[in-house]
Amino acid sequence: MTILDGKQTANDIKTELAVRVDQLILQGKRSPHLAAVLVGNDGASLTYVGSKVRSCERIGYESTLIQLPEETTEAELLQQIDRLNANAAVDGFIVQLPLPKHIDEEKVLMAIDPDKDVDGFHPTNFGKMALDMESFIPATPYGIMELLRRYQIDISGKHAVVIGRSHIVGRPMSILLSRKSSPGNATVTLTHSRTKNLAAITKEADIVVSALGVPNFLKGNMVKKGAIIIDVGITRVPDSSHPKGYVITGDVDYERVKEKASFITPVPGGVGPMTIAMLLQNTYLAYSRHADV
Ligand code: GUN
């Protein structure tokens, strides 16, 4: 069994990007610039956006964090997005999800200039991805594909089972796994809350990607021997023995499932760090499309 070390792989990617930034600076060019908009005070979102900004600093990117109060109106947020769309010094930006309930997420995502949509959530980018055209690919599924690529895991012709059909992870994951590329060419089953007899399906899988958000959901008896297991879950489970008062827990019953898996991602240190690395990669792509590099 091999542990897919997302932390190390993400560090490798960040180091590669940092080298490119150093070269840009030596050439007298500016560095890539990522902005993040955060509305409200959701603890997990604050942590994720903080990590994204810190990672920018570490590799020499410019970063801007725009923190707006919970009461921000939809119109105010849309105005902020217009300003970022128009700001030539910003290569790409993200609006951290989830948004407060009074704001229409779809309207907000549609307002982002597709050329700056480094999350890859705009229909233009999502459509291009589905059609094998160059686009920004959502960072979490992109990170999983990159992890498979760097560990040279061949999934061609294999049965991949994705659990969860979210727009951010499950749905794009199912598209990427089935794409005619490497890694890719998998036969994909996309499962969700209405799927009947899920365990019978996961037991047939050569690769399982779980993006459900239910701690320890995937048990040892739900996977086949030799399966590749990718855990996207990052639920905060209350734990008074931990200084933070919670532990980050994945969808996979790691201790049991690792006994059967050929490859497995840990939580934390698996998919999570890869998401940030690929966001930085997308920001570099946004930069290089219009900067002369
Ligand atoms: N919320 C959870 N994951 C993500 C992500 O990748 N991007 C944004 N913008 N919000 C998220």
What layout of secondary structure does this protein have?
Blueprint: E1 2-3, H1 6-26, E2 33-39, H2 43-59, E3 62-68, H3 74-86, E4 92-95, H4 105-111, H5 123-130, H6 139-150, E5 159-163, H7 170-178, E6 187-191, H8 198-202, E7 207-210, E8 228-231, E9 235-238, E10 246-249, H9 254-257, E11 263-264, H10 271-290
Parallel strand pairs: 1-11, 2-3, 2-4, 5-6, 5-7, 7-8, 8-11
Antiparallel strand pairs: 9-10
Helix pairs in contact: 1-10, 2-10, 6-7, 6-10
The protein binds guanine.
Describe it.
This protein has helices spanning 6-26, 43-59, 74-86, 105-111, 123-130, 139-150, 170-178, 198-202, 254-257, 271-290; strands at residues 2-3, 33-39, 62-68, 92-95, 159-163, 187-191, 207-210, 228-231, 235-238, 246-249, 263-264. It has 293 residues and is of the alpha/beta class. The chain has two domains: 29-113, 3-Layer(aba) Sandwich (Rossmann fold); 139-272, Rossmann fold (3-Layer(aba) Sandwich), CATH 3.40.50.720. The strands form three sheets. Strands 1-11-8-7-5-6 form a six-stranded parallel beta sheet. The chain has a three-stranded parallel beta sheet with strand order 3-2-4, covered by helices on one side. Helix 7 (170-178) links the parallel strand 5 and strand 6. Helix 1 runs parallel beside helix 10 (271-290), helix 6 (139-150) runs parallel beside helix 7 (170-178) and helix 6 crosses helix 10 (271-290). The radius of gyration is 19 Å and the shape is globular. The model has no long low-confidence stretch (mean pLDDT 97). The chain binds guanine (GUN). Guanine (GUN) is lined by residues 94-97, 119, 139-140, 168, 275. Residues 94-97, 119, 139-140, 168, 275 line the site of guanine.
